[in-house]
Amino acid sequence: MKADIFGEAIRDYYVNGNKSAKINVHSPNFDDDEIPVDYLFRSYEEMPLIEKTALQLAKGNILEVGCGAGSHALHLQSKKKKVTAIDISPLSIEIAKMRGVHQTVCADFFDFESDQKFDTILMLMNGIGIVGKVNRLHMFFQQAKKLLSKKGQILLDSSDLIYLFEENDVSNQPTYYGELSYQISYKNTMSEEFDWLYLDFESLKVLAQMNGFEASLIKKGSHYDYLAKLVIS
């Protein structure tokens, strides 16, 4: 996404005081939707149980992927945990810094390099979505191995979109049913189309094992969502 849609909206909310700001979500698969920007500024108490659980389990040297406005990183810092927050959005990183996140890097996870190893890679709000397509998961696991410490963990959440399809619909799909494409817009600016992945846990478990990881189901959410932990096997 060349246009910094999330960053523009986050800055408008935080700097300009536009508390009603909303990011519009467009997909050929579904009706248009919207993300209230204030959701990206929620407190720990306002977060869903899956996110709270992940933050509680995050330990050691933490890498948060896709930090947005920095709400997760700020909570981790308040608990005296060491966290590096990365995001591809320059303006989001700018606001995260303004809000008090100590260690930030504007970077794509797949290109991110570090001279330190991380004990936890944290990927929330359907963090695995950045992979885009199932056939790119091997690239994700390869990069994770470069960044993780020997006994490190990945904590990520996702959702199984099976509830959107009839059984026959899924079997007739030419691609995995959780592979979607989106555009997002804010005011008069529209992003390029990008791929986004929703991955059911059983598929994650199998694909993780194929790439040298062991996946365990930590918590199920109320609507086909889940939190998983992955460690190098």
What does this structure look like?
This protein has helices spanning 5-14, 49-57, 71-78, 90-99, 137-147, 167-171, 201-210, and strands at 22-27, 30-36, 61-65, 82-87, 103-106, 118-123, 148-159, 179-186, 189-190, 194-197, 213-220, 225-232. The protein is an alpha/beta fold and 233 residues long. The protein has one domain (46-179, 196-232): Rossmann fold. The strands form two sheets. A seven-stranded mixed β-sheet has the order 5-4-3-6-7-12-11, sandwiched between helices. Strands 1, 2, 8, 9 and 10 form a five-stranded antiparallel β-sheet that branches. Helix 1 (5-14) packs parallel to helix 4 (90-99). The two termini are 34 Å apart. 35% of the residues are buried.
Structural class: alpha/beta
CATH class categorisation:
Alpha Beta
What CATH calls the topology is: Rossmann fold
- What is the total domain count? 1
Looking at CATH, the homologous superfamily is: Vaccinia Virus protein VP39
**Multimerization status:** single chain
How many DSSP E strands? 12
Element pattern in H and E: HEEHEHEHEEHEHEEEHEE
